[in-house]
Design goal:
One of its GO terms (molecular function) is iron ion binding. Belongs to the bacterial ring-hydroxylating dioxygenase alpha subunit family. InterPro entries: ARHD_Rieske_2Fe_2S, Rieske_2Fe-2S, Rieske_2Fe-2S_sf, Rng_hydr_dOase-A. Keywords: 2Fe-2S, Iron, Iron-sulfur, Metal-binding, Oxidoreductase. The chain has three domains: 34 residues, no CATH class; 104 residues, Rieske Iron-sulfur Protein (3-layer Sandwich), CATH 2.102.10; 50 residues, no CATH class. Helix content is 20%, strand content 25%. It has six helices and 14 strands. The strands form five sheets. A four-stranded antiparallel sheet has the order 6-5-4-7, with no helix packed on it. Strands 3-12-11 form a three-stranded antiparallel sheet. A hairpin with a 2-residue loop joins β4 and β5. The termini are close together. The N terminus and C terminus are likely disordered.
Length: 227
């Protein structure tokens, strides 16, 4: 029986050493080095699916998600634009929004009460008089950080934490065809929430657009299962 060799370190990492046509090395699920590499090269620089636009269909609608380690709020602002805001107050980095979903014109930090609009702009702070003439500058420079790039395809909203890189369409490549087939198969194509799936269509539906078979997916791959 053939086996995979121990995975290399991050410095000389080659994905072919841990992923083969018919097997994946168990270290993919347990290696801290591989995990850090995924965070740095996928979640910090690539496009990540965060929501379907129907989940934030009205101004003020929001969802809380993670992009890698970073907590974010996916929100449709009062101007109708979908933004992905870092879910951290710019005052003391406290988590701003704890609800999973909702509708809000603004977000108020529970720590010191700083308030931000649903477009990310700083709206107000307690004891404003204490800031004197610096308040206008403070307000202009301390709005919520946000993903520099947000785009969508077929209603699926993606965000990238990197200001530069390939476009979403380039990133998706031939996967756009699979998304199109998925949308054509579903009577309710908007019902595709981001996050963990308990049930999903069999892969064949995406590959050739046929079949009604559905299957249960495990919630996780147990780390003790190795090739």
């Amino acid at each position: 029986m053939t086996t995979l060799e121990p995975p290399p370190t991050v410095d000389d990492f080659d994905v072919n050493s841990v992923v083969q046509t018919d097997r994946v090395h168990g270290s993919v699920y347990t290696s801290a080095d591989i995990f850090r590499r995924e965070m740095d090269t996928i979640f910090k620089t690539g496009w990540v699916y965060v929501a379907h636009d129907s989940e934030v269909s009205e101004p003020g609608d929001y969802l809380t998600r993670f992009i890698g380690h970073d907590p974010v709020v996916v929100v449709r602002g009062k101007d109708g634009e979908i933004r992905v805001l870092l879910n951290r107050c710019t005052h003391r980095a406290n988590k701003l929004c704890n609800a999973e979903t909702g509708n809000a014109n603004s977000f108020r930090c529970p720590y010191h009460g700083w308030t931000f609009s649903n477009t990310g702009a700083l709206q107000g702070v307690p004891m404003r008089e204490g800031y004197g003439d610096t308040y206008s500058e403070l307000r202009a420079g301390l709005g919520l950080a946000q993903a520099p790039r947000v785009d969508s395809y077929g209603g699926f909203v993606f965000a990238s934490l990197a200001p530069d890189g390939v476009s979403l369409r380039e990133h998706l490549g031939k996967a756009t065809g699979a998304i199109d087939r998925l949308l054509n198969l579903s009577p309710h194509p908007q019902d595709r929430p981001a996050g963990q799936l308990d049930e999903a269509s069999a892969p064949r539906q995406l590959e050739d657009g046929g079949g009604e078979q559905r299957r249960r997916l495990p919630r996780a791959v147990h780390p003790r299962l190795r090739v």
